User: Fold this.
Amino acid sequence: MNSKERVARTLRGEETDRVPIGFFAIDSDTVEKILGRPTYLRAKAKVQVAFWEGRRDEVVESWKRDTIDLYRKLDFLDIVPVCCMASSVAPPKGYRPEAPRRVDDVTWEFKDGRVYKYSELTQDLTMVHDPRQWTRSFSEEDFDTEKATEKQPPPDPSIFEVVDAVIGEFGEDRYILGPAGGEVGMVLLGGMERGLMEFAEHPDWVRRATECALLRAESMDPHYVRPGTDGVLWGQDFAHQTGPLLSPRTFRELCLPSIQRRVQRMHEDFELSVFKHACGNNWKLLGMFVEAGYDAYQSIQISAGMELAKVKAAVGDRLALWAGAQVETLVGGAPEDIRCEVGEAFRALAPGGRFIFSTSHSVAVGTKYENFMAMLDRYLELCEIGA
Assistant:
């Protein structure tokens, strides 16, 4: 049984030769230890700075080469999420975005006043100031469904350089998660904080903006779904540590219909599975994850109250669970802690099937390499003994 068959059978609730394994993403510091060289894979700030400096081809070449070498080396990983390891799509050839002014070692400022800062903890750049966040206006023209359905020229083929190369290498036997026209879940007008306010203050705008986003995504699907793709992985979070970002009633009214429509399109028009990455405490939304038609739920966060055995009991055989060791333990724990968590995940989720082993989020920046290796060793031991 190859990886493609193993994951497909797991999603259908059928018996497999072992529990499949895959990760949402493996960040650059762990990739570099595995490959023994620098990489741009999941090297967030490093990639953005390289783009500002006009080094698009250097980044894309690393994404292609290092994704292929990484999954050759970790040849027992069943899922290759090319949509997350590099990017859903690469920037086109000749890409050179506006470069901001570097204020100091950790701060960049754009001409329009937006300010970004580097975090050593996440090794990423975050926008810390947007002068137009609360003053940016919206009008009826912003939500014109006729414009959203206007025929667009096909995208530059060079944006598919990475995903096509990875599918060409692994598409016959690994389970490939690739791009599509995009997720349409919570449509946040003006960014996270303002966007959540718009749900309360202007729900009609949100409803119309969501319809436009759906139409645009559907028009992009035929170009972005690449031959050889098995599924898509959508990564917008719907919750924080203690509960959902929107009330369940608002989520059901303004988000669930668009999610169901996108999932149905992936299933019926493209025969793709849909994996949902959702951090945080999703208890009040969990039933709607099942209603949405998702095939698998990933990033099940114990530290946010999502106890694995309870989640399994709640969804039964209606949703595959892609979960296991906790990212907090990978970063801050010891090898024996990780080995225990792998065993606990198997005990909670393996009975009855529909279980894919992973981590709660990703193999995140700061993961101790000895913890990563202990996790893989324990997983392989449990698969060998059929636990």
Remarks:
- The chain is about 45% helix and 10% strand.
- The mean pLDDT is 95.
